[in-house]
Design goal:
Helix content is 71%, strand content 3%. Strands 1-3-2 form a 3-stranded antiparallel beta sheet.
């Protein structure tokens, strides 16, 4: 028996002549495995083990030239993890066996996870489309349909309102008019235009008077400097310097009163009245929609009544009722806002006109005490020159 047929771990005793013959035979036999091993090692390639196991399956069912295959396992994170190496098959060459695989722990865990993902609990294939994806698709579809429906309603409403406006301008369509409310709205708009003009003039006065006060301050400084440098006119320059400084101080007080007046009127015009006019604009848009659907309903009622027109008439009646309720609600809201606005306007302007009159009168009368009393009466605090912000030393 040859050495290749013996079981590993057993020692064979033979005759020297016989051993010499066996040695020659073994040399010729060993050349063939060495050549096969060199060819297998030269043609062997590193095959990465992927998650789907296709490469492993191809390796397992390889051709007869693949002698033996095994997986070298290593620790996690090793670059050689999952690399398949080919070695010479050491068993019987007459009965090739299937390759024996020794997968690493990391590769085996990945294959197991992939198998769980692909197959269900009963071994069948698992549906790759999960529930949340289907729900998300349904929600997106519903949102798109809602937007499309809103666009359709908006287009129809815009068409009807545009037709109503053109009919009114051409004198062909009817218009719902509340004479009392319309007159109040027109008075409000006229009042806003007049108050805006008043506000513009007050700002112009404040700007020009500010320049006067700055000129008085510079003039007073110049008189004071000349009073020191001209001994022969020391008293005359001193009197003028004191007068200009006093006028400058009173002018700053008057400027504080004027700026307070401007701020109050600006709030009334650009906040209170403007908010009311926004409500008026909404009321006018609701009125146009109401008249548009009213006209549409009247045209349908004048036509024939059959199985096709009756559903349209009922739908038009519903839309007309919705816009009628909206129109009535906004009309009531605008009436209430106009009433409160008129009361607020009278109260605010009464105080501001009194302030403006007393401050201007006291300034040009030269009554400094009365001018200061006016500021105290209306709780006006003057800012000291240069007190708009902290100095760079205070910021350090």
């Amino acid at each position: 028996m040859s050495a290749a047929g013996e079981a590993p771990g057993l020692t064979v005793h033979s005759h020297p002549a016989t051993a010499e013959m066996h040695a020659q035979d073994s040399e010729s036999d060993s050349e063939e495995p060495e050549m096969a091993e060199a060819q297998a090692r030269g043609s062997a390639a590193e095959i990465p083990v992927t998650s789907n196991g296709e490469d492993m399956k191809h390796m397992m069912t390889g051709g007869p030239t693949l002698k033996e295959t095994r997986i070298v396992s290593s620790s996690y994170g090793n670059p050689s993890e999952g690399i398949i190496e080919a070695e010479t098959y050491r068993g019987s060459s007459f009965f090739p066996k299937s390759p024996v695989l020794f997968p690493s722990n990391a590769a085996a865990s990945r294959l197991a996870e992939h198998a769980q993902d692909v197959s269900g609990p009963a071994g069948g294939l698992k549906n790759t489309q999960s529930g949340p994806v289907v729900i998300t698709d349904e929600i997106s579809k519903n949102i798109a349909l809602e937007k499309l429906e809103q666009m359709k309603k908006w287009s129809i409403s815009t068409y009807k309102c545009t037709r109503q406006v053109l009919s009114e301008k051409l004198g062909r369509g009817s218009k719902t008019v509340d004479l009392e409310l319309e007159s109040q709205i027109e008075i409000l708009r006229e009042t806003k235009r007049k108050y805006e003009n008043l506000l513009r003039l007050a700002r112009q006065m404040a700007s020009q008077f500010y320049q006067v006060v700055q000129t008085q301050r510079q003039l007073g400084d110049a008189f004071g400097e000349l009073s020191v440098k001209s001994p022969e006119l020391h008293e005359e320059f001193g009197y003028n310097a004191e007068t200009q400084k006093l006028l400058c101080k009173n002018g700053e007080t008057l400027l504080g009163a004027i700026n307070f007046f401007i701020a109050s009127v600006n709030t009334l015009v650009n906040k209170t009245i403007e908010d009311t006019l926004i409500a008026v604009k909404q009321y006018e848009n609701a009125r146009i929609e109401y008249d548009a659907y009213r006209t549409d309903l009247e045209e349908l009622n004048l036509g024939p009544r059959d199985a096709v027109t009756i559903p349209k008439i009922e739908q038009s009646q519903q839309q007309f009722q919705i816009h009628k309720e909206k129109f009535d609600k906004l009309r009531t809201s605008v009436s209430i806002k106009l009433k409160f606005l008129d009361e607020n306007k009278i109260k605010v302007m009464h105080n501001q006109l009194l302030l403006f009159h007393n401050a201007v009168s006291a300034y040009f009368a030269g009554n400094q005490h009365q001018l200061e009393q006016v500021l105290k009466q209306f709780h006006i605090k003057l800012k000291a020159p240069g007190s708009d912000g902290p100095s760079w030393l205070e910021e350090q």
